[in-house]
Write a structure and sequence with these properties.
It is a single chain. The chain is an alpha+beta fold. The chain folds into two domains: 323 residues, Outer membrane efflux proteins (OEP) (Up-down Bundle), CATH 1.20.1600.10; 89 residues, Outer membrane efflux proteins (OEP), CATH 2.20.200. Helix content is 63%, strand content 16%. It is built from eight helices and eight strands; from the N terminus they run H-E-H-H-E-E-E-E-H-H-E-H-E-E-H-H. The strands form three sheets. Strands 2-5-7-8 form a four-stranded antiparallel sheet, with no helix packed on it. A two-stranded parallel sheet has the order 1-6.
Length: 446
């Protein structure tokens, strides 16, 4: 194989490797990737998993508790008690007699079972509701990821469309420059016209550089919201930028909004918090059982018996403990009042959130309607600007239009295309907000 063939095959291989390295990704795929890889999604799943441990912890309060204990002590000086001498055949005397042994040890087991504890029972209900809260909160986290990824996705499109506009304008202006240069070389054009075109090309080149940076930054932002490594190359799907006017309703039912479901679960939890605090007024009843084995003597009691002067005995007890709170300086009442204030604050948050959701929908609806009109008018404006530019180019070649007219027409087309691109972006963002207001963000990943 000669050198030229190896070079062609090498370039072909390099091109294919670059093509494979660049991943084509649709909006749905971008959303799915974020839901599987973004840290916020993982943390939401961990919160649900942690809720199972909270439930297990709450159940522990209703289960029996068994504790074992062991201890050993040495009494270098035994306490003495005064006994009347009559007891020991020595009337009229008081005799000091030591009680106990130098060494003592004890091994015991205690069982405690709650028979009635209102705080434990309420805590178990609250723990189950906490898991439901984290499940709903996971859904809210997913929706926030969908909103962020979708917005960033369309931002990339916008920057790329603007870059295409600049590149098209650059190519068009470059052709004009070549025509002017040819006319100038033949003495049919002025040098100032050639210089002005060169300046315009330089400005367009600078604009292209800035827009390429903007594209790179917007792509990095998208990959960040997706949880994708920044070094990965991606290519967006053009079909996702198509305009599909949604069905607009006068009013919507906001009861399905995940934000409200989260607040409702918080309200339930705060209600349990009030009840759990009030439960401190209730008595508690526990079953208690003890069993112990004790060894005492004059020698170290471990592994020694009666022959070494160590005496072992066991004992057991079973009982019920009742604790009735009577007065604690209004501490419980103050805590209950604080818990009720938190609940009332949440009620106000619910009202404010519902009102804000209605406003959000009406704003999104208005923006959709306005943006559809803007897209229609801007599209017509682009077509008109293109026609003006084509006519001006033709007239310029025949000396019927000035260079200023030509450059103005070129700039007008660039502005018209950018306005159209901005109108499409505004529509897509308003569409995201409309889905959010209706509680239908999940549709964007379908």
């Amino acid at each position: 194989m000669n050198h030229s063939k190896r070079l062609v095959l090498g370039l072909l291989f390099f091109g294919l490797s670059q093509l494979n390295a660049q991943q084509s990704i649709s909006l749905k795929e971008a959303i799915d990737y974020a839901l599987q890889n973004k840290a916020a999604a993982h943390k939401a799943n961990l919160a649900i998993k942690n809720a199972d441990y909270l439930i297990a912890e709450s159940k522990a309060g209703a289960l029996p508790k068994v504790n074992a204990s062991a201890g050993i002590s040495y009494n270098p000086i035994l306490q003495k008690s005064a006994l009347p001498g009559d007891m020991l055949g020595r009337p009229g005397e008081v005799i000091m007699v030591p009680f106990g042994q130098k060494w003592g040890s004890q091994i015991g087991v205690q069982l405690q079972q709650a028979l009635f504890n209102q705080q434990v029972f309420i805590g178990l209900k609250a723990a189950k509701t906490t898991k439901e809260f984290y499940q709903v909160n996971k859904q809210l986290t997913d929706e926030q990821l969908i909103e962020n990824v979708s917005t960033a996705y369309y931002q990339v499109f916008t920057q790329k469309e603007k870059l295409k506009t600049l590149e098209s304008s650059y190519q068009s202006t470059e052709k004009v420059k070549n025509i002017i240069k040819s006319l100038y070389d033949n003495g049919l054009a002025k040098k100032v016209d050639l210089d002005r075109t060169t300046v315009n090309l330089t400005n367009l080149e600078s604009g292209k550089t800035q827009m390429k940076n903007a594209v790179s930054l917007s792509e990095n932002a998208l990959k960040f919201y997706m949880g994708m490594p920044i070094e990965n190359e991606i290519q967006l799907v053009e079909a996702d930028l198509e305009i599909h006017p949604p069905l607009l309703e006068e009013t919507i039912n906001t009861d399905n909004r995940t934000e409200l479901k989260v607040l409702e679960k918080q309200k339930t939890l705060l209600g349990y918090n009030v009840k759990a605090t009030e439960a401190a007024y209730y008595p508690t009843l526990n079953l208690v059982g003890n069993y112990a084995w004790q060894g005492i003597g004059k020698n170290f009691p471990v592994f020694q018996g009666k022959d070494q002067g160590v005496y072992w005995t066991d004992y057991a007890s079973v009982g019920i403990q009742l604790n009735i709170p009577i007065f604690n300086g209004f501490q419980i009442k103050s805590k209950v009042d604080q818990a009720k204030i938190e609940l009332e604050n949440l009620e106000q948050d619910l009202k404010e959130t519902k009102l804000g959701m209605d406003l959000q929908y009406q704003n999104a609806k208005t923006q959709i309607e306005n943006n559809l009109e803007a897209i229609k008018s801007q599209k017509a404006n682009v077509e008109l600007a293109q026609t003006v530019l084509d006519n001006t180019k033709s007239n310029y070649q025949y000396g019927l239009a000035s260079l200023t007219d030509l450059l103005d027409a070129e700039n007008a087309l660039v502005q018209a295309k950018n306005n159209y691109t901005n109108a499409v972006l505004d529509f897509k963002i308003a569409e995201i907000q409309l889905y959010k207001a209706k509680g239908e963000l999940q549709k964007l990943k379908n």
